[in-house]
Design goal:
The complex is a heterotetramer of chains A (about 325), B (about 325), C (about 575) and D (about 260). Chain A is mainly α and about 325 residues long. Chain A contains 13 helices and no strands. Chain B is α/β, with parallel strands linked by helices and about 325 residues long. Chain B contains nine helices and twelve strands. Chain C contains 20 helices and 21 strands. In chain C, the strands form five sheets. A seven-stranded mixed sheet of chain C has the order 8-9-10-1-11-19-12. In chain C, strands 14-18-13-17-15-16 form a six-stranded mixed sheet. In chain C, strands 4-5-7-6 form a four-stranded antiparallel sheet. In chain C, helix 15 links the parallel strand 15 and strand 16. In chain D, helix 7 runs antiparallel to helix 8. By secondary structure, chain D is mainly α. Classes of the chains: A mainly alpha (about 325), B alpha/beta (about 325), C alpha+beta (about 575), D mainly alpha (about 260).
């Protein structure tokens, strides 16, 4: 078991290293330099421009040899410093991101866990009713096949533009200031709901199907037959089947994380929800590598942590891994 | 007579039609009797075993009755059957190795199973421990997960579990096939032991291994193509097999000590008929060296000697 | 594990309920209230701004507000200059005149000495008086190399405070036009707070909690909004007799058009300076929405979109080819098809309507161009561009194949659509022009290095003087990186000396200015270094639900620019705030 | 269903002569006999865009899916068959790529590509969506590699590669096929996402791009549903149909699911 975690940690370490390096390298290889882009927006007199160019190049630490930049990058990274945003100069990237992250987490966390939980429950439930099964299956598959943004657009159009029940965009109404009042929280929740819903629905479909199929496999397992032969009630058998089916679903969760994050990003964009995704889009449009880099790192770290969490949970719930057999994600 | 099976017909539903896996099987098992049920694979012996306790999704009870201790078993009715399972009829499945939920501690599994059948686990714990000891398992196994036990240990565990409520009929389905010779012997003896200790009244021991049957069974039932070929006390059957199929089966057995060079192993030429639409009359006809026109009609199961029943025109 | 999940769902369910309730509640109240609620919004929480005292604007802020430093005048949160920090004068391009603001008057006492007098009783929002010392200090900040207006000191000799209200500027070489620009573009900062600051701080500091002299103060900001609150002790109330109506100004950061347009229609935004496609159809659509003109072009013009040609490459180096290309482009198709008539086609000179008085009609009539494929073809033929290899496209006089790339930044959808039109119409006369959409970054790089065929650019905004416009067009010398002007790398000594001459012409001597511009136009139209295509609009959609009194072309309405973009407050729209009236009191 | 779309994608561009970006009709027309799916803000034919979009969608699906499948298979087979150090190494690689959030990488790459086409997009998607395939195949190969018919082949002196191709692969062909279908769907969705963010092909048309445009040009408040409904629906239909088709295959391949 120690070995198990040893390997995992190693993998994570490597992943992190690779990711960070990639993350650092790419901007260096792309055309043009950030400072120029930044100043391009300031229509300065040419003579001024020269001076500024030099000045900002040093501000962003782009005036030292490449290898030194790389080392500095790591150094800064370990100090939790992701550099200064170009687009939002002179804000430090870290603080910009930290302002956005809560929204994303508030969106992603519940969406993932709830859809997973509800999806599994429902899938298991569907697996035992023929008619339900027949309806759930197609619906579920269609749901998983739906592009997040499209579902988002439809919801926004139907419930926001046409019905006007929910706001089209934003984190909270423009006429309120943040406070711990019910009014404000309600307002938040109201803006949160549509993006959440579109994430939830797509996820839900996938999990429901996964669980449905797994349950059916489990019910065909030897232990299920044995219990039945000894006259154990279906309740018991199903309980076992469900519990055992949860394990692969858990692995699935780990595998899905990347995709889910992607989903969150586009959904945020649809609803211009002030989270990471929306930020990334803007960073991209404004060619702000430092911000893009930072955001990417945040995501990497987030996904890594989540993966690790899943691993731990997995080991906790699956005796087989604990016994030292290889297993888990 | 603790078990009476009369003209039992159980068919398999398949896309291509009904497979007549059991086509009118009749026999009885006396109290304390340990019956060996033998036959080539696909002859319906496992089906018989299953249908006595639980028909799986594709099986259909077509005709015939099963009576246990004077009560009729509603084998066609899954729900009604529950009353008898585990308590009256129990099974040690072919797949005993993997018969336990991998994610439950064995003790917990047992407890939950018992409770679900309305038995207080505490009440039988003593007995459980005693029997574990009997089969040479330490009490600790109850705190283990199945994965932590060796195949043999798991199998013994299942044997104990299945017989915990002293069923009157135990079906041991191919329990030895997956084991090496020495363990086979041990398992077989355990079955006898259980019978002697009255943990179970009577046992049906399903296998394709005649020699093992010879060692432990009181009587033997030979099945062929969904029908009974011959039933007789073990010695009688081995000494004077009446049904040509039985003879060939016995002939196919290597005798220990005999060099194969001296006496070629006589396999049985041909293969059993398809049970989708089995031929009229005796089903062994096509492979039978003694076959003659009469065989075109199904020979009845007749008692040719005390407790010795054969279904063959030539036999009587 | 499952317990954990249980807990979670419980929490989430609560959230959903809350959402549903507020949602439902809002729905119920929305029948009439909806319009007055921003963001299709929730019933306003306690800490909310009363709708009828709040002005919602959008279209100025392209990212979360991140600094309030008037020195970084391309980065500060819009409104930092204009609402908080103020200028000596403001310049009204509609009337073409300077309005005294912090300064009460100013003028040239001699050829190279400019003297200005500040108003009496100017104060900073912290109560301290605003004096000539602050003005001198502000200009002297320019001595830092990293301050954008550093180059001012190449021709400004010294700035001194004669007395508390008088400042005297002595020039080594007076550049009147540029100086005019500085007069309304330099935001005056308080010496007593800025004195100690390092160069880094001055040039790149975020300057949170800005203290200025203007009519509004910093209230709060977040990712998607910037909120200003009225400064009740503003000096202008008495000195200028101006009293801005809105207590709060909420500047909503641009998100996507859906959100913006939706809000404008619902009355969630009072004034949107976004480019909102399809607005034309909605102005007539019975919504409360109005634009400066009731019909096409609906919008005033803010800058000129040029087709920039790389004159160092063949065949763009050939004036004849450039003219032929100019004649081939069907600008009306762009105006109608892409923009739905909310922009207008540029005049051959490309000078904005506001500068009309500097256009020499006779020159235009003689040399001007217009969409005329036939003429384009004949011009090409005369200049020796013929289809020699029968691919339907002309080759160069030397038989060289001609295939040109026209680029605009990816994602700039209206331009992307526009150049598709340009490409098509060029092909129609036999010039093979392909369209490409590189990322902005890459485009800037190529543009500055001169590593392109053609691109669209509109970098010179409306300003006080056509000099800026020609400076952009003819600037010399061509450096190896052209970062701000003359991207086409067009070299014409005569034109450049004329531009410099124009710069040295006093702003009040329009006759002299016209003499120079007419010569410049003669060169421009006969050489066509860049091809003016259309005037980008000063996008402005106002909603009358809550506030009325918006500027418009109607007589009786104020003829200001209803635009709150960076540097447009100083172009007079600050005055608009005083004209606004709550709709209720109408 | 899928086939219907495929046909449409192939012949569609032929039956209506004009390109997806040409201005052919009056702007913002509702669907009608003349314009089956209506027209965009600039009077482009939504139907024309749709069919061209379908094209690139299928292209991305095929290319991306195929590439991913190939990489996954190569790695999965080698890892599973060779085992040992090779396996460890490949496993490490797989895990690394697996954990890195694909879209984030694609975003970054896409951002730095000067000019983007459908093909490179598909390739990049393929390059990052293979890990789970590799994993699954590796597992399968493990179980198969120990079967006796493989031993036989080995005894008969066949080379590793040959064994994989002739003995192992055929035995999981059904599985491989289903994997490919999943990958196809995956690539299509990923591509749609990228396009929607505005990092899609900078030339040409795709369903994701259509949605992107619809949103950029505020089709929602203008109520131009015919602009953003078809593309999304198209994607959903195709991918959904594929998945369901997969279930069908699955039921054919393992009877367990057929019961119940």
């Amino acid at each position: 078991m120690r070995r198990h975690f040893g390997r995992k940690l190693l993998i994570y370490a490597v992943t992190f290293f690779v990711a960070v390096t990639v993350d650092w390298v790419i901007p260096r290889f792309m055309p043009g330099d950030p400072v120029q882009t930044m100043l391009a927006r300031a229509s300065l007199r040419p003579e001024a421009n020269q001076a500024m160019q030099a000045y900002y190049t040093s501000v962003f630490g782009l005036d030292v040899p490449i290898w030194e930049q790389y080392l500095n990058f790591w150094g800064a990274l370990l100090r939790g410093d992701l550099g200064v945003s170009i687009w939002l100069f002179p804000q430090p990237v870290t603080s910009v991101l930290l302002r956005a992250v809560p929204y994303t987490i508030a969106l992603l966390g519940p969406a993932i866990l709830l859809s997973w939980w509800a999806g599994n429950k429902f899938g298991a439930y569907a697996a035992r009713r023929k008619w339900l099964d027949n309806t759930v299956l197609p619906v579920g598959y269609v749901l998983t096949a739906t592009p997040y943004m499209w579902l988002g657009i439809l919801l926004a159009w139907a419930l926001a533009t046409v019905a006007g029940i929910f706001p089209i965009a934003g984190g909270y109404s423009f006429d309120v200031e943040p406070s711990w009042s019910w009014g404000f929280l309600g307002n938040l929740a109201q803006h949160w709901f549509l993006p959440f819903a579109s994430l939830f629905l797509v996820g839900f479909g996938g999990w429901a199907i996964g669980m449905r199929n797994l349950i059916i496999y489990e019910l065909e397992a030897d232990y299920a037959h044995y219990l039945a032969a000894l006259g154990a009630p279906r309740r018991l058998v199903r309980r076992y089947a469900f519990r055992n089916a949860l394990l692969p679903q858990l692995t699935g969760l780990a595998l899905q994380l990347g995709v889910l994050v992607a989903g969150a990003l586009v959904t945020e964009i649809v609803f211009s929800y002030p989270g990471l995704g929306y930020l990334i889009l803007q960073a991209i449009n404004n060619q702000d590598f430092f911000l893009i880099q930072g955001a990417f790192l945040f995501i990497i770290i987030g996904v890594l942590l989540a993966n690790f969490l899943v691993d731990v949970v997995y080991v906790l719930v699956d005796p087989r891994t604990r016994v030292g057999m290889r297993g888990g994600a | 007579m603790s078990l009476k099976v009369d003209n039992l017909k159980v068919w398999y539903r398949t896309l291509r039609g009904d497979v007549r896996a059991l086509d009118g099987v009749t026999f009885g098992v006396a109290d304390g009797e340990l019956v060996g049920l033998v036959g080539e694979s696909g002859c319906g012996k496992s089906t018989l075993g299953k249908s006595l306790i639980r028909l799986d999704g594709r099986m259909r009870h077509v005709d015939g009755t099963v009576e246990l201790d004077g009560k009729e078993l509603p084998i066609g009715d899954d729900a009604a059957m529950n009353r008898f399972r585990f308590k009256e009829v129990s099974i040690i499945p072919q797949y005993a190795m993997s018969a336990m939920n991998p994610t439950r501690r064995i003790g917990k599994l047992a407890a939950e199973l018992l409770e679900s059948r309305g038995v207080r686990p505490a009440g039988v714990r003593e007995e459980l421990l005693r029997r574990l000891e009997l089969v040479g398992l330490a009490p600790e196994v109850l705190d283990r997960y199945p994965i932590e036990l060796s195949g043999g240990m798991r199998q013994r565990m299942v044997m104990v579990l299945s017989t915990l409520l002293n069923p009157s009929l135990l079906i041991a389905d191919e329990v030895t096939s997956a084991l090496d010779v020495s363990t086979q012997k041990a398992v077989a003896e355990t079955l006898v032991d259980f019978r002697d200790r009255d943990y179970v009244k009577s046992t049906i021991f399903i296998t394709h291994d005649l020699s093992l049957v010879y060692q432990i069974a009181d009587s033997v039932v030979v099945m062929y193509a969904g029908r009974l070929a011959e039933k007789a006390p073990t010695d009688a059957l081995v000494a004077s097999p009446r049904h040509p199929y039985t003879r060939m089966l016995l002939a196919a057995l290597p005798e220990v000590g005999v060099r194969y060079g001296a006496r070629r192993l006589a396999g049985i030429p041909g293969s059993p008929p398809s049970l989708l639409d089995p031929p009229k009359g005796c089903r062994f006809r096509d492979r039978c060296p003694l076959a003659f026109d009469r065989c075109a009609t199904q020979p009845p199961l007749t008692e040719v000697a005390p407790d010795h029943h054969v279904a063959c025109w030539k036999a009587s | 594990m499952r317990d954990k999940l249980r807990l979670l769902i419980a929490v989430a369910v609560v959230c959903l309920l809350v959402a549903a309730c507020t949602g439902g509640g809002n729905d119920a109240g929305s029948g009439s209230g909806q319009q007055a609620q921003p963001a299709g919004g929730a019933p306003a929480g306690p800490a909310s701004y009363p709708r009828n005292e709040t002005l919602y604007i959008s279209g100025t802020q392209w990212g979360p507000p991140n600094n309030w430093n008037p020195i970084m005048d391309w980065q500060y949160a819009t409104g930092t200059e204009g609402l908080v920090y103020e200028n000596l004068f403001i310049y009204d391009p509609m009337k073409g005149q300077y309005k005294p603001w912090l300064a009460s008057k100013g003028g040239w006492t001699s050829k190279n000495v400019y003297e200005l007098t500040l108003r009496d009783g100017l104060t900073w929002s912290d109560g301290k008086p605003l004096t000539s010392a602050d003005v001198v200090f502000t200009f002297e900040l320019g001595k830092f190399a990293s301050v954008p207006y550093h180059n001012l000191w190449d021709w400004l000799d010294k700035a001194e405070a004669v007395d508390g209200r008088t400042v005297r500027f002595t020039f080594s070489e007076p550049l009147y036009q540029q100086w005019g620009n500085h007069l309304y573009n330099r935001a005056i900062v308080p010496k007593h707070l800025w004195e100690g600051r390092s160069e880094k701080d001055v040039a790149t500091g975020a300057n949170e909690k800005p203290v200025g002299s203007g009519p509004y103060l910093y209230q709060t900001h977040s990712q998607d909004r910037m909120v200003w609150v009225k400064n009740d002790k503003w000096w202008g109330k008495t000195a200028l007799g101006l009293d801005p109506e809105p207590k709060y100004i909420v500047d909503i950061v641009n998100s996507n058009n859906n959100a913006a347009l939706g809000l404008v229609l619902q009355g969630g935004i009072d004034l949107s300076n976004n480019f909102l496609p399809g607005i034309a159809t909605l102005v007539k659509g019975g919504y409360q929405v109005q634009t400066y003109f009731p019909d096409p072009p609906y919008m005033l013009s803010a800058n000129t979109a040029w087709l920039v040609l790389n004159t160092t490459k063949k065949p763009m180096a050939d004036p004849a080819f450039r003219k032929a290309l100019a004649d081939s482009i069907d600008v009306d198709k762009i105006v109608n098809g892409v923009y739905g008539q909310i922009v207008q086609a540029a005049s051959p000179t490309g000078l904005l309507p506001a500068w009309d008085k500097f256009v020499d009609k006779s020159v235009v009539n003689q040399l001007g161009f217009s969409y005329d494929p036939a003429k384009a073809r004949s011009l090409l033929a005369q200049a020796g561009y013929k289809d020699t290899n029968g691919d339907k496209f002309v080759e160069g006089p030397n038989g060289a194949k001609i295939e040109l790339n026209l680029i605009v930044p990816n994602g700039w959808t209206d331009w992307m659509e526009s150049i598709r039109v340009v490409g098509e119409s060029a092909k129609a006369v036999g010039i093979k022009v392909n369209t490409e959409f590189p990322e902005f970054q890459a485009l800037v790089d190529a543009r500055n290095k001169g590593d392109f065929d053609m691109l669209i650019n509109n970098e010179k905004q409306l300003s006080n003087s056509p000099w800026e416009y020609y400076d952009y067009m003819f600037r010399l010398p061509v450096q190896e990186s052209q970062s701000t002007a003359n991207f086409g790398r067009y070299e014409n000594k005569k034109a450049w000396s004329l531009v410099q001459q124009l710069d040295k012409t006093p702003t009040d001597d329009e006759a002299a200015m016209r003499k120079v511009t007419s010569q410049l136009q003669r060169i421009q139209l006969s050489e066509l270094p860049v091809i003016p295509l259309w005037y980008n609009g000063a996008w402005a959609q106002a909603n009358n639900t809550v506030w009325t009194g918006w500027p418009s072309a109607k007589d009786g309405d104020s003829h200001l620019m209803p635009v709150t973009w960076r540097n447009y407050w100083e172009l007079g729209s600050i005055l608009m705030l005083a004209d606004l009236k709550p709709a209720a009191t109408k | 269903m899928v086939l219907a779309f495929l046909v449409l994608a192939v012949v569609g561009p032929l039956i209506n002569g004009h390109g997806p970006n040409e201005y052919v009709g009056p702007p913002a027309q509702r669907p009608s006999a003349a314009w089956w799916f209506g027209t965009t803000m600039f009077g482009q034919d939504v139907f024309a865009q749709f069919v061209h979009g379908l094209r690139s969608t299928f292209l991305v699906g095929l290319l991306g899916g195929a590439l991913a499948a190939v990489i996954g298979m190569v790695i999965g087979f080698t890892a599973g068959y060779r085992g040992g150090a090779v396996d460890e190494g490949l496993n490490m690689v797989t895990n690394v790529v697996l954990v890195i959030p694909t879209l984030a990488v694609l975003l970054i790459i896409a951002t730095y590509l000067k000019v983007r086409g459908v093909v490179p997009e598909a390739i990049f998607i393929g390059l990052f969506s293979w890990p789970w395939v590799a994993r699954a195949i590796r597992a399968q190969t493990f179980s198969l590699a120990s079967r006796d018919f493989v031993d036989l082949a080995r005894l008969s002196g066949a080379g590793g590669a040959r064994i994989v191709v002739t003995e192992i692969a055929p035995n999981m062909s059904s599985y491989l096929f289903m994997t490919f279908i999943l990958l196809f769907g995956g690539s299509v969705l990923t591509a749609a996402t990228l396009d929607f963010i505005g990092l899609g092909p900078t030339d040409g048309m795709s369903l994701g791009l259509m949605m992107n445009n619809a949103v950029l040009w505020s089709a929602l408040p203008l109520g131009m549903w015919w602009w953003f409904v078809p593309p999304g629906l198209g994607i959903t239909m195709i991918v959904g149909a594929l998945y369901i088709m997969n279930v069908g295959l699955d039921e054919v391949f393992n009877p367990k699911l057929r019961e119940l």
